[in-house]
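Worked Example 4.2. Consider the chain below.
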Amino acid sequence: MIRSPIAAALAALAMLAVPGLALAQQHPPEAAAPAAGSAAAAGDWPEYGRDALGSRWSRLTQINRENVQRLVPAWHIHTGESDPEHAAKHRTSFESTPVVANGTMYVTTPTGRVLALEPETGRTRWTFDPHMDRSIRFGDFVNRGVSTWTDPEARPGAACARRVYDTPIDGRLIALDAVSGKPCAGFGTGGTVDLHRGLRNAPYEPAEYEVTSPPAVVNGVVVVGSAVSDNNRAHAASGEVRGYDARTGALRWTWDPVPQRPDDPAYATWQGAGAHHTGAANAWSVIAGDPARDLVFVPTSSPSPDYYGGERLGSNRYANSVVALRASTGALVWAFQTVHHDLWDYDNAAPPALVTVRRGGRDVPAVVEATKTGMLYVLNRETGAPLFPVEERRVPPSTVPGERAWPTQPFSTLPALSPGRLDPDSVFGLNGADRAACRAMVSGLRNEGIFTPPSFDGTVALPANVGGAHWGGVAYDPGRQIVVAPVNRIAAVVQLFRAETVPEDSLRATGERLGYETTRMRGTPYIMRRRLLLAPSGIPCTPPPFGALVAVSLATGKKLWEVPLGSLNGFLHPAPADSAALAGLGSPNLGGAIATAGGLVFVAATLDRQLRAFDIETGRELWHASLPAGGKATPMTFEGRDGRQYVVIAAGGDGEYFGSGDDVLAFALPPAGSDPRGVGAE
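Applying the procedure from the previous section yields the following structure tokens:
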């Protein structure tokens, strides 16, 4: 059994990286100019990543390294999602990043409700409820936010001249009037487009096909991806990316990450009788856009199923890739694959960040992608060519009948964000018994470093499927050319079994033993089983820190600093007699960071339920505040109409190890002459 809260929390993290896993019951200028294509007003945060480019950087400097320690609560609201009237019947995760546009803040809840708030006070202006079926057990029950758009042809003040696009997890695209919250009648059918329509592989149940991230809106086209349940079957729901007319909801184009035309240059990289019927390879993370170049940048995931590719042999191009598409037509411009023939659930979970870097004395438009493998890729935004070298290196072969692992993988030469190998002699533990148990476990497994394929004996997977870098993605300071990413450093063991050797009814008990997750990968000969590599105390066997914040300079290609992120205090029972034993261990984390021209990085994301501010040049923690539940989300910052800069975080946890709640909190510097404890309005 999982023996401690931290062990259970780690197992939950691994599950959360797999939507719908079928468990068997189981210096430089402080205020640089905005990047080309950014339409965001200086003080607003109108998109998930602040602007369509997704750099998560704000020019605001009112809060800076000299005064951040004076931040106090400004307001605190509840979304109402905990009320019986709105609550889902199954566990949800509050991962929304609020946006601020034209003087209004928009926040979404896991069930797709949209709240329009007065940004300076948190007072509600309107709410919209999509009335989804809250009884469905979605695998990753989240909604990460909305997107906004202003119709350049609409009369100012007309209904739906400004729009908010909501994508509830049940697979709908809804256009709302930004002022009233009412559906835009001329969009789709009564304001709604059903995203289930037209899929190549239809979902076999409602929960197999989800939408968890906000769409990209580029030059009047709404571009939408999807989340597809992993590991259930070889021909899972298909992961088409689609572009819809922002005004009418009419389908403009469809792009399938599994090539369907024999004249597609990637068609031959999918081999086998059913290879082109493969599902998933979807884009469940946030899509970035470059309006000036009429491009969208799509981070694709693993094909179905994750851990066996015998039914889809070949390198499987366009899956596990960063793909540039023409926003107006959906035409492929270029694609760069970060994992060939994925056998490890190494989705591109992070939103691409569109940035400008200095190379050879000139500014180059770039795409930054941090991956679950712990690698950082920087690509030319116009061509996809790596701006820092990428090397194809040989990796271990598969020993599973029917499988042919791809012989090489693309390794970035930038510093690794997290390790890819677990040395048995360096296993961690709180005591000798922990370390001995970890060494014994690792010694019996296939352990040849990153990209060692799953095996019958069990394979060490480091990073585990949660990442490495994860859906939290990166933040980028354009003046300093610093990329910052939160990462995990936890290993898992993945094992395959022949399906005929495991009675179907026995799977129902497997998920209850030893923290295993087990699934029958239908359409393949195999069952997959995995668990995190944990010591008897519940602590990971990997050397700490288990979670870290890492900064890399794109000016030099060197790692600037890394610091443990978070703490495990309160998550080990019994707690070590020496509390110093927990110092510097870091915390597993899910959520993103933002950077500001004030020289700061803000990030929550950790199990210990804190929002933190770090010095972007040194990694020194400058401030922290306790949250009512885990901030399993990405914060944002904006300037209110009162002239104050606010930092806002959704802190509702995941209903389990990150805590539970429906809180949104704003922090700011105290107004002149105010109570230094802040207003803290409820």
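The first helix runs from residue 5 to 16. The chain has three helices and 40 strands. Compare this with Example 4.1 before moving on.
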